[in-house]
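Need the bound structure for 6-O-phosphono-alpha-D-glucopyranose, inputs here:
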Amino acid sequence: MSNGLRVSILGGGSAYTPGLIEGFIRLKDTVPLERLVLMDIDSRKLSIVGAMVKAMLEAEMPGTRVDLTQDRMEAIQDIDFILCQIRVGGLAARHLDESIATELGLVGQETTGPGGFSMALRTIPVMVEIARDIETHNPGAWLINYTNPTGLVAEAIHKACPVKVISICDEPMILQEALAGFVGVDPGSLFMDYFGLNHLGWARRVLLRGNDILPVLRQTMQESSDIDLDKVFGSTVMSDPKNQLELQNTLRIFLETGLLPSPYLQYYYFSDEMIRYRVSTGKTRAQEVIELEKAILADFEKVTAGRKKLEIKRGGKWHADMMIGMLSAIAQDSRSIYIVNVPNRGSMPELPYDKIVEVPAVVDASGAHPLAVGNMPASVRGLVQAVAAYEELTVKAALEGSQADALDALTCHPLVPSREVAKRLLDSYLRTHAEYLPQFAGRH
Ligand code: G6P
Ligand code: MN
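Answer from helper R.:
Posting the output first, comments after.
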């Protein structure tokens, strides 16, 4: 590894990229950047985001070389850390994933439920191809993956290829930093006793100097009639109605159960309400994000032209803290604790040994080493085990192009009510996304 780090971002034209760059700028003394390569197949987004990123780095880290490319190999060779945030089929494919489920009266969501199944079938072959390219052309590089559905993608990569990879999601960090802000302490002083799968995890204790703060927090919140979420999460986050509802529901689950859940648990605990909410908006979340992205890219162009001040509306500090924290823990061999997606290896004894789980892990130059988190509370064990079985079958189906496994996977999913509905979903997804599902072509 050279003095400064050589970092690339696959899917670098995303609206999330400038928030990450702000993170690199904040941490420039600990994680100096020598070179940044932004790779994207969408040339328009790449040039808008790229121009702004260049201006940001020129102002704050003038020694950093920035390259924009549409060639994946350029973002793989001679790179230390390959960050990956791709979206196969773009938001148009996400819209179809979500609307097909919603039309059948089910939860229509990007990662949770049938939508996540469809996204996994489409995304896994591309991610495995990327992992194999890294393995062949730059085996010393680290792949830091946060492409959704993160847990399933992680499981497929670990099965298919021995690349150096850590898969992450910012939700645990969002909980940790929001909680730290609420209590008024440094996020690093909290230990999250967290367990589960990606977008299906809970903190069952949050330790501050050896004491669990969750019971007192729960009592305080139960007693105060009005919790100012704007103050906890910031007004930019709260300006998106989806975030407002999600965070209210997260607190609702915490107050009712005493477990602090990933916000995605709302789709299981309140599935009927979530279905009604989605129908009431008359749009899929993908359609909302398409509008958001349009406005954000227009803003970026104004910022580059010097007509506006940059305001990060997607991603932001918590997201960057997670991604860059990870990179820094590996680069500096710091043995820091992060909640990441790793092979279980006994950390959660009620799940298979090789299952990808989302748990606290010690991160150093050799990767992520999961801590033993133990057995789950009975109240959530069944749900986690059912989703784990669904994930295992989905990954197998995506890698092997097996319709039988795909149908079994959907049938196992707690948000799919019957095998008949599973068949309709599968037919619809395979037909609609045929161009992205070569592994199923001509197979039964
Ligand atoms: C959270 C999740 C991510 C997800 C993001 C945006 O950060 O952890 O996995 O991509 O929210 O979700 P949205 O529905 O707004 O695209
Ligand atoms: Mn996530």
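Comments: The chain has a mean pLDDT of 96. Residues 110, 148, 169-171, 285, 289 surround 6-O-phosphono-alpha-D-glucopyranose (ligand 1) (CB under 6 Å).
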